[in-house]
Amino acid sequence: MLEDKNQHLTPISALGEFGLIKRLTEKFSLKQDSSELSVGDDAAIINPDGKKVVVTTDILAEGVHFNLGYVPLKHLGYKAVIVNLSDIAAMNAAPTQILVSLAVSNRFPVEALDEIYEGIKLACGKYGVDLVGGDTTSSTSGLVMSITAIGMENSDKIATRKNAKPNDLLVVSGDLGGAYLGLQILEREHAVFLANPNMQPEMEGYDYILERQLKPEARTDVKKILDELEVLPTSMIDVSDGLASEILHLSDQSQVGFRLYEEKIPMDTMTITTSEEFNLNPVMCALSGGEDYELLFTISPNDFDKIKNHPDFTVIGHAVDLEQGNYMVLRGRNELSQLTAQGWDAFLNKQ
C-alpha cells in the first residue's frame, strides 16, 4: 500500500481530526483569484466575479471504484481529483477549486494519507486548482473519498447535455477503450500475484493503457482549443461510463437520436492489440469500458471545417430525429446495431 515499506508509521489517533487536516493540507497554496478563504475556517469563500459557478461531486469507494491491491495511493489521490475536473471540463468550464472529504479506517496510517494527498497536490498543481476545504472522519469499511469540484465560466460559454439538434456532428477527443484494457491487465496480474506471491507482474509494454487507468487526465485543454477555433459545443459530456452510455445520455437530455459510425471510433494501437490478447472486441471496450475521461460533444455542421483537421478531435457520427433512435453503423456494412447502455454503473457492476 505504501511506497516506502520501511518508514515509521503514525496512527491517525496520534494526530486527531484537526491535527490530521492541518498536516494533510499545510503544503497547499492558493492560485486562483476567486479563492478568498480556504482550509481552516468553517467554510470557504469563493468570489465568482460575475461568472456562472459549476459544481460537481464524485465518490470513490474502496472495493467498488478501486482496489488497493494494485492501485498506488498517490495515483488514487491524483485520479480522484481528475474524475471531478473532467465533469467540470464537460460543462465547457474551467476548474478552479476542490474540496476533499475522506472516511478512513484505522488500518491506514497517517503516512498512507500523506501519499493520497501528495497525489491530490500534484493534480491541483497541474490543473491550477485550489484545495479550499473538506472533511475527515473514521470508517468501519475501508477508504471512501468524496471530492467536490468547482468551476467557472461565462454563461454564454457553458455547455450542457441538452442542446444537440438533428444534423449536429458528434465529436470525441482523444482515443477510447484504453482505460478498460489497462484495468484488465491490472486485474490479471493481481490474480496471478494472489495465486503465487513470488511471481513478478508482467506489466512491460502496457505503459499507455496502464496510465490511462491509473493516472488519467482531465481534458481541460479542449475548452481552450475550441475557444481558439471559435467553436461552441451544442452539447457535451465526459466519457466516464463508456461511449454508448454517454451517447444515450445526450440523446435523452437533448431529445435527439444518434448515428455512430463504428469505423470512426478512435482507438490506440495498444488498445486494439491488448483487446485481442484478452479475446475482447476493441469496439465493445470503447463502447462499454469507461474511465477514458475524454470529452464527447456535438457541434453545428457549420463548424466542421474548423475542426476537421485537428489531431485531437474525431467526428464519429451525427444527430438525427429522436424517432430514428440510437444506432451504430457497422464497419464495412450499411447495417445498424442498436446502442445499449452497458457501461459502468456502481449499483450494477462489481470490480
From TrEMBL:
Residues where ATP binds: 117, 134-135, 161, 240
Keywords: ATP-binding, Kinase, Magnesium, Metal-binding, Nucleotide-binding, Thiamine biosynthesis, Transferase
Positions bound to substrate: 65, 291, 344
Protein name per UniProt: Thiamine-monophosphate kinase
Transmembrane region(s): none
Record keyword Transferase present: yes
Protein role: Catalyzes the ATP-dependent phosphorylation of thiamine-monophosphate (TMP) to form thiamine-pyrophosphate (TPP), the active form of vitamin B1.
Pfam families, per database record: AIRS
Misc. remarks from the entry: Reaction mechanism of ThiL seems to utilize a direct, inline transfer of the gamma-phosphate of ATP to TMP rather than a phosphorylated enzyme intermediate.
Binding site for Mg(2+) 3: 42, 87, 238
Binding site for Mg(2+) 1: 57-58, 135
Residues reported to bind Mg(2+) 2: 58, 87
Single annotated GO MF: magnesium ion binding
A GO BP annotation: thiamine biosynthetic process
Domain PurM-like N-terminal, residue spans: 40-152
Enzyme kind, highest EC tier: transferase
Binding residues for Mg(2+) 4: 42, 56, 87
Recorded family membership: Belongs to the thiamine-monophosphate kinase family.
Catalytic activity field: thiamine phosphate + ATP = thiamine diphosphate + ADP
EC number, UniProt record: 2.7.4.16
Binding site for Mg(2+) 5: 241
Organism (species): Chryseobacterium taklimakanense
Pathway note: Cofactor biosynthesis; thiamine diphosphate biosynthesis; thiamine diphosphate from thiamine phosphate: step 1/1
